[in-house]
Amino acid sequence: MAMDGYRGFLGLLVSALLVGFLSVIFTLIWVLHYREGLGWDGSPLEFNWHPVLVVTGFVFIQGIAIIVYRLPWTWKCSKLLMKLIHAGLNAVAAILAIISLVAVFDFHNSFKIPNMYSLHSWVGLTVVIFYILQLLLGFFIFLLPLAPLSLRAFLMPIHVYSGLLIFGTVIATVLMGVTEKLIFTLKTPAYSTLPPEGVFANILGLLILVFGALIFWIVTRPQWKRPKEPNSTLLQPNGGTPEGVEGSRAINFGNMDKSDSELNDETAARKRNVALDDAAQRSTM
Known about the structure:
Structural class: mainly alpha
Shape: globular
Helix content: over 70%
Largest sheet: none
Number of helices: 8
Distance between the termini: 80 Å
């Protein structure tokens, strides 16, 4: 099935992937060139894993997971396969986000820095918790064939809305974290004097913001939505039995009624013929 505005979609998709990839590269350059690299020893080098993992997993990979259903060359793939890919990407993003939190808490505890006092930390931990809940809900409700169709239909709009809300909150939290890090670390020269590191990190923030905007635009265009499968089951508005199933039942019942009536007519006719034969035999005798 052809997609409406395919060239526009392809252009935005390539732009989003390019900007997202640049965001990851800029994050690596920031921590390797300006922040002295990476490590896992409780030092600031361990903290540097936090922005790298967040931008790579919580921003870039989550963004790809959001638009994976919109890729037209996957429309011939089964819906189950796309669900597995969507869930797998989100699971990778969740794992990277959890590791990034471990790096932050480990660094803070090593240097006796208080935990969970800033708005960035409050929103960040909250969005990670809700992201994991969203992942578990999607796994048990939409991936496993356990939940009834009526429940899936009811929760699907909530699932979509909460996914976009979480992604937008992640973008805002990352921007808060970049600014907070620059204010705390840039003293001489100060962040207010626009040093090279400050300018570079500000550009990183703009790249992340543009990536989020492109993902939101792609996923909210109705003409780029994955078409429904021909054999997909639809629910009636009142939560009744699926369409098609009830229709087939009605047809079968109609055929059964028709065949039964015909059979009854034939039986009655036979009884009448037997009665006539008996009467004729008696009259002859």
